[in-house]
């Protein structure tokens, strides 16, 4: 079984904020001490950190739930609870993080040591020392901690490489990688010898260096899931230059030019933007009989299908087996990399908008629906946040929550929907009677 894993779905839960405390100062010689309950501590964030030592998402195969610690509760003497430490989750370079529900890209982690908070911890609830006023100098009010953010994430690893080797199975991609780098890919005289991407570093004679990825062989229909292409085409997206390896000996009875067209069609079908990347055509197996004749025929067909205004992709005849022609190929690849910029792999429509914590006039603070048992049901992100942070063990906190609902317009909205005295209203699992 392959130990390479490049996709994973996980759940993360940031820590809840600590509850605020209701306490009063009771000391000898200090009459009418007043409130003394402190605030709760902040809940821990869930933070992704890029670790260049990781190569796959295998760590997420069996551990799919990540939960940060909650903050400590507030204490007497006005002391705040301790904030929880962030939960650090290490991921490999090239990891894309998506929201599993919306499919939006949350972040793209490509630099070693890069950090990103994928789930924010809740703030601590306020203690009663924070609610003292001249009108109410001894409040018995405190807040529960804010719930930590909880979300399901889809992780997708797209390996970081400057150059990608593409081509049909058995055209010599793994052999080429083994002779131009120190990588030791599996090499065999059968299709799909390579079943996971292999990565190696190239150093040219002039001192230039770049990373090369050998991807599992593509076949027709790869972009629709045929063969291994659908699993590994994603890894070509980060490359800046594509080396298109073609078996010029036609040892398997296929026409080299038809191979060239078929692979480009699969790249285009998977992601049209892959065709923006410059290609170098690598005519491999030139040590075999009839390779030279096939190369001349290939050049004629290629020229016939390009306009005079278009520049033909460069062609380098090589032999991975005898190592002939490798130096000019590597020098040309390094030169092309120098003048090729990075390609953004996500557009704005795919990216999740940054969180906005201000007031949005269009956003409804609550929604009203009705259950089959005729109970009115209140929901909504803002309303549920207030509900979760209300300490229902204290009458003053409950009254404060009732005032907040009235201020949000819940009472008026219920009347407009036809609510009458004595009707049941439900928020989560909490039920109360509506009083007109």
UniProtKB/TrEMBL annotation:
Belongs to the TRAFAC class OBG-HflX-like GTPase superfamily. OBG GTPase family. HAMAP family: GTPase_Obg. PANTHER family: DEVELOPMENTALLY REGULATED GTP-BINDING PROTEIN-RELATED, MITOCHONDRIAL RIBOSOME-ASSOCIATED GTPASE 2. Keywords: Cytoplasm, GTP-binding, Hydrolase, Magnesium, Metal-binding, Nucleotide-binding. One of its GO terms (molecular function) is GTP binding. Its main location: cytoplasm. It comes from Streptococcus infantis. Monomer. It comes from the Bacteria. GTP binds at residues 167-174, 192-196, 214-217, 284-287, 319-321. Residues 2-160 form the Obg domain. InterPro entries: G_OBG (IPR031167), GTP-bd (IPR006073), GTP-bd_Obg/CgtA (IPR014100), GTP-bd_prot_GTP1/OBG_C_sf (IPR036346), GTP1-OBG_CS (IPR006074), GTP1_OBG_dom (IPR006169), GTP1_OBG_dom_sf (IPR036726), OBG_GTPase (IPR045086). GO terms for cellular component: cytoplasm. This is GTPase Obg. Its cofactor is Mg(2+). PROSITE patterns: G_OBG, GTP1_OBG, OBG, OCT. Its EC number is 3.6.5.-. Residues 161-338 form the OBG-type G domain. NCBIfam families: Obg_CgtA, Obg_CgtA_exten, PRK12296.1, PRK12297.1, PRK12299.1, small_GTP. It is found in: Cytoplasm.
């Amino acid at each position: 079984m392959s130990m390479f894993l490049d996709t994973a779905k996980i759940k993360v839960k940031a820590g809840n904020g600590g509850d605020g405390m209701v306490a009063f100062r009771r000391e000898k010689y200090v009459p009418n001490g007043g409130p003394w309950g402190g605030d709760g501590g902040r809940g821990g964030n869930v933070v992704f950190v890029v670790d260049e030592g990781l190569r796959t998402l295998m760590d997420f195969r069996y551990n799919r739930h990540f939960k940060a610690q909650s903050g400590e509760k507030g204490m007497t003497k006005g002391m705040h609870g301790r904030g929880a430490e962030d939960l650090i989750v290490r991921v490999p370079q090239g990891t894309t993080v998506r929201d599993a529900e919306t499919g939006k890209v949350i972040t793209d982690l490509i630099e070693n040591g890069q950090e990103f908070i994928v789930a924010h911890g809740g703030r601590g609830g306020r203690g009663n020392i924070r609610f003292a006023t001249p009108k109410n100098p001894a409040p018995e009010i405190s807040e529960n901690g804010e719930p930590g953010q909880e979300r399901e994430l889809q992780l997708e690893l797209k390996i970081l490489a400057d150059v990608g080797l593409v081509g049909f199975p058995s055209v010599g991609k793994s052999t080429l990688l083994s002779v131009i780098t120190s990588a030791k890919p599996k090499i065999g005289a059968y299709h799909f010898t390579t079943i996971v991407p292999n990565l190696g570093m190239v150093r040219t004679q002039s001192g230039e260096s770049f990373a090369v990825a050998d991807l599992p062989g593509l076949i027709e229909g790869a972009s629709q899931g045929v063969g291994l292409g659908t699993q590994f085409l994603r890894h070509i997206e980060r490359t800046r230059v594509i080396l298109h390896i073609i078996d010029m000996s036609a040892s398997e009875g296929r026409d080299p030019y038809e191979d060239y067209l078929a692979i480009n069609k699969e790249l285009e079908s998977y992601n049209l933007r892959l065709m923006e990347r410059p290609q170098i055509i690598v005519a491999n197996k030139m040590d075999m009989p009839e390779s030279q004749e096939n190369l001349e025929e290939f050049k004629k067909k290629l020229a016939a299908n390009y306009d005079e205004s278009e520049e033909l992709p460069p062609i380098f005849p090589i032999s991975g087996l005898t190592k002939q022609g490798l130096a000019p190929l590597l020098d040309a690849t390094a030169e092309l990399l120098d003048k090729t910029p990075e390609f953004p792999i996500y557009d704005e429509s795919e990216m999740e908008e940054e969180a906005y914590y201000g007031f949005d006039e269009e956003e409804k603070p609550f929604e009203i629906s009705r259950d089959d048992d005729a109970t009115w049901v209140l929901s909504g992100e803002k309303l549920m946040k207030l509900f979760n942070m209300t300490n229902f063990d204290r009458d003053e906190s409950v009254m404060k929550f009732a005032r907040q609902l009235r201020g949000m317009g819940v009472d008026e909205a219920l009347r407009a929907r036809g609510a009458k005295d004595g009707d049941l209203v439900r928020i989560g699992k909490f039920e109360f009677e509506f009083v007109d």
